[in-house]
Amino acid sequence: MNPVPLTLLSETAASRPMATWRFNRHELAGAFGDLGTDLPLLAAMIVAAGLDAASVLIMFGALQVVTALVYRMPMPVQPLKAMAALVITQQLSPGVLYGGGLAIGVLVLLLALSGSLSWLARVIPGPVVRGIQFGLGLQLALLAGRDFIAREGPVGWGLAAGAFALVILLWENRRWPAALAVVGLGTAYAAAVKLDWAALSAGVGLALPTWHVPTAADVWTGLVLLALPQLPLSLANSLLATHRLAADLFPDRAPSMRKLGLTYAGMNLLAPWLGGVPVCHGSGGLAGHHAFGARVGVSVLLYGGLFLAAGLFFSGSFDTLIHGFPRAVLGVLLFFEGLALLRRVSGAGLDARGWLVTLVTALCAAGLPNGYLTGLAAGWLTHAWLARQPASAPVPRA
């Protein structure tokens, strides 16, 4: 076992041929690689918009299962982050959220069918896409420390330190996968200290998703307030960066941009009718599943099954479950999800000019308003300017 963390995310196993469908403890561990991103966003949207928890959880789980069967690789399904942030901060109605989901589904469907997504994948320079990955990795790692660990007090810091140590000690351990140990630590603490077992048992019962018909006004409002602000992030991270990362990790079975666009659109054209939140694929989720051991679609299948079970049988206790599991432990999972993206970019073989473009893009994406759109533009302009310089010209120090 390597004692140095810089070797944690080596991808030697990913380069070997492997079956596309199998179950083992590493697929089970990889299933929790995206939990730190998804769970807080879903919980916050349910509370802020007054959504039906059963519908949200069941649809989110069902879309994971379908994606696992379609891709047979750890292709994630995540809540749309820009939409989630707007819904949470502005407390928008469920109808507007569902309308926004339908609107962005139509937009991405048109882009996929017209060939625009494939064209973007060809013309956007590779270092710009790497910059989007790097910026997202920075955001996830900083979010883990700032909002998940730092606010939890001494107990949270202790749990985070224990979880971090478990990951370092057990990374690539074939007998005891790191993510299972981390989730086990959080579950044990929740069961012993935090969970209200009476409230948990009172909320157990069968529930099904509810039918919802978005109105034309909801779709129009959702387009303006949610879909258009979300689109740049979706193009940059959910589609372009995911396409690039999938090609890195699984070169023998990486999906096309068209396929990614069609499944993205299909999920959002279906979910609103049954009370599901708008969703996407995402490079962070793919990196997180892969970093904790997932190599095939079983990890996403198991992850979806977890949300399906929670929605079908425990949606009445969802609030109790959310507040019981320690956020500091989720933060450690989120931190390593971000680190996986950073490691992938660091191993991409960029030259000095490529690194400059990547860092310009990443810093804009991670630190500016509308960062992903700004980062795409700034990175593309920087790449174009460098391309006009003589090959012997010195590269400005980043």
Main attributes of the structure:
mainly alpha; two-stranded antiparallel sheet; globular; disordered N terminus
3D architecture notes:
This protein is mainly alpha-helical and 398 residues long. The protein has one domain (21-348). The protein has 18 helices and two strands. It has helices at 25-30, 35-49, 53-71, 81-90, 94-114, 116-123, 126-149, 153-170, 178-194, 197-202, 216-249, 257-270, 283-291, 298-313, 318-324, 327-346, 352-367, 371-387, and strands at 78-79, 279-280. Strands 1-2 form a two-stranded antiparallel ribbon. Helix 3 packs antiparallel against helix 14, helix 7 packs antiparallel against helix 18 (371-387) and helix 11 crosses helix 13 (283-291).
